[in-house]
Amino acid sequence: MVTSPTDLNRVEIFISYSHEDEALLKRLETHLTGLKRAGLITVWHGRNISAGVPWEEEIDKHLSNAQIVLLLVSANFIASDYGYGVEFQRAMERHRQRTARVIAIILSPCRWRDTPLAKLQVSPRGAKPVTQWADTEQAFVSITDDIAEVVKELRLINDKDAERDDPRDSRESEVVKRERTRTIPAIKYTLALAITVAIIAIAGLMFDYWRGVGSPQPGASPTPSPAATATPSPRFSVSPQGIKITISEFPPYNPVGGPDSTGHIAGRVEGSASEEYSIVIFSYTDRWYVQPSTEKPRTAVDANGNWSAEIKTGSKYAVLLVPQNFQPPNKTSTNPTNLDRVVTFMEVEGKNVIRIRQRRNAIIPTKDGNTNQ
Description:
Elements: H1 5-8, E1 11-16, H2 22-37, E2 41-44, H3 55-65, E3 68-73, H4 75-79, H5 83-97, E4 101-106, E5 121-123, H6 136-165, H7 174-211, E6 236-238, E7 244-249, E8 262-270, E9 277-284, E10 288-291, E11 298-299, E12 306-312, E13 316-323, E14 331-332, E15 344-349, E16 352-358, E17 364-365, E18 371-372
């Protein structure tokens, strides 16, 4: 039998549920039929176990292989020793390792927000329990839409993996390619920086030598060598006004991102009038999204100049230094570093600085509240 590319690229879904909720499980399966018939997914749960098969081993095998784990959440599920105590804990472990996407589907009212379920992507829309929808079919349509979106993202990743495993390929893993792509520019940058420092040092020595050919004037103070001038670090950016922004911690590289993927970013702002500015952070997946959220688009700088935030991860991050009254867009397809009134910025990929630029057309606030161009 010849296997089609669609067969190879099906996303396996594992469903964990309480047997008391089996009627709702069947309704969900019915709504997932379209994705199954399109060859996009396979669905497995405990009712698929054949007679005589060791059920714990079978569950563990499918739970370990699934790319998506659906948790059908209800009071019955939370009370289940095996569903919540075993399957849920294994799903959370894979969620932390980022080896599976875990979605909590709220079937009926319960105190799920008091549990680790609150850290997961939740469906249906607005986390409204299925049984409280006036039309439960619409609730399952919302759930299916959320699942289809995740399936689309995972299939893109699977396509890249298939290209990597093609015998005509160079046999390099996608991770190795990505690391090499990020490492080579970093090496070139470091080498160029070292050469620049060496040239400055040599020029300083020659300058000092020619100044010292004659006898120094009595009481004259020595002139500092240009070699003693501080060399810019790849970890900070300085504005034309002398205000410096630094980044000390970076989130991980994550091209998929998603609501359940977070990371920590932190740094400092130094220089005159630095308290008149705030930080705006953007994370990039399919476009640029403001962080930490649309409700809180700005990150405050404390009295010591420190700033930090928990943000959604992405493949790139842009940290902007802006005036306090700056209003950023919630999302944008163009690079946010080009926005008006940005004083200075840093753009990074993973832990590698990929762009630092001074903005000379920034609007700078003055002490009296006016602005200077």
